[in-house]
Each structure stands twice: as structure tokens, then as C-alpha cells.
Amino acid sequence: MSFSIRLNTDERNLAESYAKIHGISLSDAFRKALFEKIEDEFDLKIAEEAMQEYEASGQKSRPITELWKELGL
Predict the structure, then answer these.
(1) Residue-wise pLDDT tens digits, 4-60
(2) Which of 37, 5, 68 lies closest to 16, judged by CA?
(3) Rg (the chain; Cα; Å)
(4) DSSP 3-state assignment of 2?
(5) What local confidence, expressed as pLDDT, does residue 55 receive?
(6) The pTM is what?
(7) Closest CA to 31 of 1, 53, 57, 9
């Protein structure tokens, strides 16, 4: 599948500079940016759901120093 994007001159220059710095094509730069954004948002959604489950469970967190003490570290 292919598609096109309209960019103004500044946007195109920025995108081309990014691609050049990373030694990739402009197409690969957009593909990489798109999928990194999707992955970041997906990870954030999973983290938010996990936090809600944790809070709903009634468990309480404790300082990491307590765990270190318990483990003798």
C-alpha cells in the first residue's frame, strides 16, 4: 500500500534531514516514526490499564529501600 502526504517546505526539509542523519529513505523515516508512535501509545495504554488493575486490587506500594533491606542489599 502506498499513500502521499502534503508537507510544507519546512516540514519536508526537517523530514529529509532526519532521514539523512539516520541513513534511511524518507519513506523509511515516516514508516519508522509512525510505528514508533503507535507502539508508544499502545505501551502507554497497557501501563494505564495495569495501574488501574493494581489500584483496584487494594495493594499498596512501598519504598524500594524496604525491599533492599529485606533482601539484604
Answers:
(1) 999 999 999 999 999 999 999 999 999 999 999 999 999 999 999 999 999 999 988
(2) 5
(3) 22
(4) coil
(5) 92
(6) 0.68
(7) 1
Query: Nearest-CA neighbor of 29 among 6, 10, 12?
Result: 12
CA dihedral 17, 21, 23, 25 (to 10 degrees): -20
Q: For residues 43 and 49, give the distance between their C-alpha atoms in angstroms, rounded to a whole number.
A: 10
Check if the beta carbon of residue 26 is closer than 8 Å to that of residue 2. no
Q: What does the pLDDT read at residue 2?
A: 86
Residue spans of alpha helices (H) in the chain: 9-22, 26-56, 64-71
Whole-number Å distance between alpha carbons of 57 and 54:
5
Alpha carbon distance 13, 10 (integer Å): 5
